[in-house]
């Protein structure tokens, strides 16, 4: 059974089981009603009808299997009950008169009922049922009429085995033949043996006047199935030896679209011929006890069967990418109607029959065709069919060719077919019989004395022997695709082991997967193709990011071979890592082996020296586990590709340790630091290896360099978080020595040093700009994490003081003295580094008139001990009356009520003093209370949104129209969008805004629905904290340029610089910027959305670099100059806010 959709498979198996249940027990009234009600679950919309009823529908799609199983169960439950039988067929009868969807469901139920073993209807009743089915098909709506025809013909064929010969003959001559003849379908007898179907007359009928090809295919298929009941000779001429005239000159003269339609019909005919031949001639000869005549007939019929499969294969190949316009399906999908047992018969004869004289390349095509049909089309095959395939020697032949064939195509095809066969097996005994065939492919010590073992032990021994065979095949494979198939077989066999046996095979699993990833195929060639290509920045970025997605099928086929190969190698390493089941020590040992291989490889071709045991005491070097056995040294390309994946695995393990450790207590700190030291040491060696590989290649390609930049950056961010976590834990503990983390800090500094070397070399030169900037940001994050470890660092002393004060307070002591509880260390979240996440809720303005935020409250704070908890205080008020003419307040408090009340008091006074209609400034604004943004220091954004809505409601009561944004808004609209719609950025060329709100169809959440010119309106929202940083630009012009012209030119230059600095313009990640006039200068006003990604120092350097790269004379005129001055922060940081809160608590 296909494993592509486990839930679907389980549902279908459950559905099939219904019939078996009712064959063993009686159905009570409640169950009967439930079965009838379940029919209503069948979808009846157009798309579902196609999947459920069309002969080309893949088995298991739609609800066809479900309806057939329920119909069989209903028939079994109604057996012996006239009332229930009448009720069942009454329900079917109602649906046969409905729309297309209802008719398809009714006809499918009729098909199930007539084909059920419990069917005991009289011949007259069946004739009546067939008559109703044909009437339903004849009068079906035009839309999806062919679907009704398809399922209707299936029901008729199911009824045929119960009908008298005369009734079947009448059915053909009175109903089917007139319809086929009317559409131009005729069979001609070219001799006494063969009949030929001509499609020319059908294809001459104008398309809008003829029935669809799929409808006619359904009629032809039914006619071929029914002819065997009435005329054996005609059956042989049409089914055994019959052909479709596709090679005639008249057919070849048709245009391409008409030939495509004809091939669709031909495919349906050949599929039906194959099914009937296998069922009536081939299968009986494979049964136990078959006589010599049956065996000879089966052998000859198998030869014909294989010939027809080649015909079908060629039709698919010719029509592979075309869609038959009138049939609405690809021709290869129509072959889904070939039964799985038929495909197995083709496979069996193609590989084992001596009479099959075909070329090896053609044999490979047949095997691949069978594999596609078995793995993609069918959900299941009968156990008898699979057992026949195993016992006939077909499975053994597949394994032999997979192992020994010199033709790569047939070797790969056979291994794929082995996998498909294994997926079809649903019976345990058959599965282990198949495993035994694999195990016996090579002599193995595991099989000594196998005949004397118990059944369970025998099976385990066969699995182990089969695993050893697949391991040898992986080591012998020469291509990625061969290894892919063999590893898939290895994994299926591995899953058959017991839990304890899997534990002993872990090292074999990781070794075989890693060996394939590192040494199968030509990894150097794949990397060199990337190096030789010159990819645009966006194309290289897409290639890098494609390693993270889970694309399958057609998307993967479109990717170049070298990229697919590198992605497969990366996936193999990740699968080997994943099998270690989140055991941190085992995962670290696996990484140790990977790092040793890349380091030793560098040593080999640089003739350097890498001492793998230099730090033997580092975790986990003392472990005896070896998960990868080294073979040969990797080249520079291999080192680069493997290092990129290794970085990803480091990130996964570091994040896992961070999650599991949380905030380590005193007893855990030593273990935690040992783990981090070992991982950082290995990461340092990997970065050094990447640098050496990049130097050897000279300039790695954009994809390889981008993968290294992205993976290393993520790893550096994780290390920064680990260092911050340990630093907090050590410095807030009185029990742990403050010098205990020196080794970790030393290792991190070594990592930073080698990371600087990567950037200084040409390793990352071809990487996409976004990934290079991300790598630079990660190094900056690591620098900041290291700086926090300094004993006198003021940024975190206040937080530590607060922790110690709480831990030694009388209230805390009484609360925790009698309860043994793990001491939870303070979260390092305010200082943690993370990946860049651009935020749409913040816009490119410098400062806000009013900014309010709520720090997260400590769960151990007792309001009874804090007298002023409900009061907010002003941490900073910034006023610029000369140019910007605005004041920004940053408020902090322990509770939201105090912050909201203070904010509303400030707003009330502002509304009393300021008339917006006469307000003049160079800074844009929308109202007197222009902007209120609420933030939280520890990321609990729901409370921030509640605070914003509370303030917005209060402003509305004061007469201010309020527009919510960010987390506070129901539609999560961003501040930028509101400002653009309100004309925020549409000031004059001189940069002055004259109190114009520019309202454009904004619906306010609070306050008046109309905006007053004296008040304007305000934006209130909840977003992550943003740092506002302005960089002044000072200009010098010739004396002849007047003041207005100077400002115009300066603004033009400033806007060009601001665009280059911002993320939107291709500059720094998580930065938004705009140019604002400020006196006789212009400032590049920036919002830093994530200080862990881009710091103020990064903005300062980027602005200086950008200004230096712009030709100033193009904007300012000949002889003019510009100077970048030191920037300044216009608001507060989360750290300074926490410090202010701590100071207030100490004062209280």
UniProtKB/TrEMBL annotation:
Any Pfam family matching the protein: FTCD_N
Keyword Coiled coil: yes
Domain of life: Eukaryota
Residue span(s) of domain Formiminotransferase N-terminal subdomain: 863-1024
Keyword Coiled coil: yes
Leader peptide range in chain numbering: none
Matching InterPro entries: Formiminotransferase_N (IPR012886), Formiminotransferase_N_sf (IPR037064), FormiminoTrfase_cat_dom_sf (IPR022384), FTCD (IPR051623)
Keywords: Coiled coil
Coiled coil regions, renumbered to chain: 310-337
Single GO term (MF): transferase activity
The protein's name in its UniProt record: Formiminotransferase N-terminal subdomain domain-containing protein
Organism: Ostreococcus tauri (Marine green alga)
């Amino acid at each position: 059974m296909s494993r592509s959709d486990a839930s679907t498979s389980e549902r279908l198996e459950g559905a099939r089981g219904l019939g078996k249940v009712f064959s063993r027990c009686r159905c009570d009234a409640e169950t009967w009603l439930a079965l009838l009600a379940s029919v209503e679950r069948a979808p009846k919309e157009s798309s579902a009808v196609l999947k459920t009823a069309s002969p080309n529908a893949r088995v298991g799609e739609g609800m066809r299997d479900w309806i057939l199983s329920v119909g069989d169960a209903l028939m079994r439950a109604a057996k012996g009950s006239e009332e229930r039988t009448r009720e069942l067929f009454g329900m079917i009868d109602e649906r046969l008169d409905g729309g297309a969807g209802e008719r398809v469901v009714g006809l499918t139920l009729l098909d199930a009922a007539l084909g059920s073993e419990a069917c005991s209807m009289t011949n007259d009743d069946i004739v009546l049922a067939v008559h109703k089915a044909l009437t339903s098909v004849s009068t079906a709506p035009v839309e999806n009429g062919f679907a009704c025809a398809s399922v209707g013909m299936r029901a008729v064929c199911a009824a045929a085995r119960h009908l008298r010969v005369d009734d079947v003959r009448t059915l053909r001559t009175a109903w089917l033949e007139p319809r086929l003849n009317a559409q131009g379908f005729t069979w001609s007898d070219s001799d006494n043996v063969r009949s030929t179907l001509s499609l020319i007359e059908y294809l001459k009928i104008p398309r809008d006047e003829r029935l669809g090809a799929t409808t006619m295919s359904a009629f032809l298929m039914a006619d071929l199935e029914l002819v065997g009941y009435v005329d054996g000779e005609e059956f042989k001429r049409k089914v055994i030896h019959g052909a479709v005239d596709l090679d005639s000159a008249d057919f070849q003269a048709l245009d391409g679209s008409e030939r495509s339609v004809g091939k669709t019909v031909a495919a349906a005919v050949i599929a039906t011929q194959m099914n009937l031949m296998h069922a009536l001639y081939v299968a009986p000869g494979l049964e136990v006890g078959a006589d010599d005549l049956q065996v000879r007939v089966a052998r000859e019929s198998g030869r014909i069967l294989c010939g027809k499969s080649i015909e079908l294969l060629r039709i698919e190949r010719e029509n592979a990418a075309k869609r038959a316009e009138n049939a609405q399906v690809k021709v290869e999908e129509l072959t889904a109607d070939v039964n799985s047992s038929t495909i197995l018969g083709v496979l069996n004869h193609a590989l084992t029959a001596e009479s099959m004289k075909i070329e090896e390349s053609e044999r490979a095509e047949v095997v691949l065709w069978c594999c596609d049909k078995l793995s993609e089309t069918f959900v299941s095959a009968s156990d008898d069919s699979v057992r026949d395939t195993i016992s006939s020697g077909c499975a053994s032949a597949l394994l032999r060719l997979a192992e020994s064939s010199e033709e790569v195509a047939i070797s790969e095809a056979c291994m794929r077919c082995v996998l498909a066969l294994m997926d079809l097996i649903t019976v345990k005994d058959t599965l282990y019989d198949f495993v035994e065939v694999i195990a016996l492919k090579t002599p193995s010590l595991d099989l000594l004395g196998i005949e004397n073992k118990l059944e369970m032990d025998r099976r385990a021994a066969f699995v182990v022997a089969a695993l050893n065979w697949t391991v040898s095949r992986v080591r012998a494979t020469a291509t990625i695709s061969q290894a892919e198939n063999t590893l898939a077989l290895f994994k299926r066999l591995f899953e058959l082991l017991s839990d304890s046996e899997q534990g002993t095979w872990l090292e074999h699993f990781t070794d075989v997967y890693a060996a394939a990833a590192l040494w199968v195929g030509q990894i150097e060639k794949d990397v060199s193709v990337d190096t030789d290509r010159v990819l645009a920045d966006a194309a290289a970025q897409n290639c890098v990011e494609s390693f993270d997605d889970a694309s399958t099928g057609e998307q993967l086929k479109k990717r170049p071979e070298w990229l697919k190969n590198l992605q497969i190698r990366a996936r193999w390493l990740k699968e080997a890592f994943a099998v270690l089941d989140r055991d941190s020590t085992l995962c670290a040992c696996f990484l140790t082996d990977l790092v040793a291989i890349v380091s030793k490889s560098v040593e080999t071709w640089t003739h350097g020296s890498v001492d793998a045991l230099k730090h033997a005491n580092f975790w986990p070097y003392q472990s005896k586990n070896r998960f990868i056995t080294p073979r040969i040294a990797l080249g520079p390309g291999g080192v680069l590709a493997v290092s990129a994946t290794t970085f990803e695995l480091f990130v996964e393990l570091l994040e896992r340790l961070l999650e599991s450790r949380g905030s380590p207590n005193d007893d855990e700190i030593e273990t935690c630091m040992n783990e981090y030291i070992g991982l950082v040491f290995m990461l340092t060696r990997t970065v050094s290896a990447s640098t050496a590989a990049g130097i050897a290649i000279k300039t790695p390609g954009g994809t390889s360099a981008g993968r290294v930049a992205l993976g290393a950056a993520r790893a550096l961010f994780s290390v920064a978080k680990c260092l911050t976590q340990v630093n907090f834990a050590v410095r807030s503990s009185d029990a742990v020595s403050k010098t205990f983390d020196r080794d970790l800090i030393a290792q991190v500094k070594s990592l930073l040093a080698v990371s600087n070397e990567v950037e200084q070399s040409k390793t990352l030169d071809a990487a996409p700009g976004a990934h290079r900037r991300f790598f630079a940001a990660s190094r900056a994050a690591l620098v900041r994490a290291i700086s926090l470890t300094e004993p006198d660092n003021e940024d975190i002393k206040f937080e530590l003081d607060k922790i110690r004060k709480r831990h030694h307070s009388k209230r805390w002591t009484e609360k925790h003295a009698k309860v043994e509880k793990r001491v939870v260390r303070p979260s390092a979240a305010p200082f943690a580094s993370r990946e860049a996440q651009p935020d749409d809720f913040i816009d490119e303005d410098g400062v806000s008139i009013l900014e309010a935020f709520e720090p997260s409250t400590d769960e151990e704070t007792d309001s009874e001990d804090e007298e002023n908890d409900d009061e907010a205080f002003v941490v900073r008020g910034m006023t610029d009356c000369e140019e910007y003419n605005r004041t920004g307040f940053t408020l902090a408090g322990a509770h939201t009520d105090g912050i909201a009340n203070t904010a509303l008091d400030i707003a009330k006074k502002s509304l009393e003093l300021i008339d917006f209609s006469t307000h003049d400034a160079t800074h844009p604004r929308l109202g007197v209370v222009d902007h209120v943004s609420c933030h939280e220091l520890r990321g609990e954004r729901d409370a921030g949104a509640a605070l914003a809505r509370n303030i917005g409601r209060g402003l509305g009561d004061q007469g201010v129209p309020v527009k919510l944004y960010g987390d506070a808004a129901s539609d999560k609209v961003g501040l930028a969008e509101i400002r653009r719609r309100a004309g925020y950025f549409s000031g004059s060329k001189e940069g002055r805004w004259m109190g114009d709100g520019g309202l454009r169809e904004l619906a306010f959440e609070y306050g008046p629905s109309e905006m007053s010119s004296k008040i304007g309106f305000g934006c209130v929202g909840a977003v992550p904290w943003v740092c506002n940083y302005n960089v002044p630009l000072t200009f010098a012009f010739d004396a002849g340029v007047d003041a207005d012209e100077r400002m115009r030119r300066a603004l033009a230059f400033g806007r060009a610089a601001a665009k280059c600095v911002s993320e939107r313009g291709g500059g720094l990640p998580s930065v938004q910027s705009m140019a604002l006039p400020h006196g006789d200068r212009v400032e590049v006003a920036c919002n830093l959305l994530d200080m862990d990604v881009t710091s103020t120092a990064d903005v300062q350097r980027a602005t200086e670099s950008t200004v230096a790269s712009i030709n100033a004379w193009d904007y300012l005129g000949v002889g003019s100059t510009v100077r970048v001055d030191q920037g300044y922060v216009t608001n507060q940081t989360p750290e300074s806010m926490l410090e202010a809160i701590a100071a207030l608590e100490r004062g209280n």
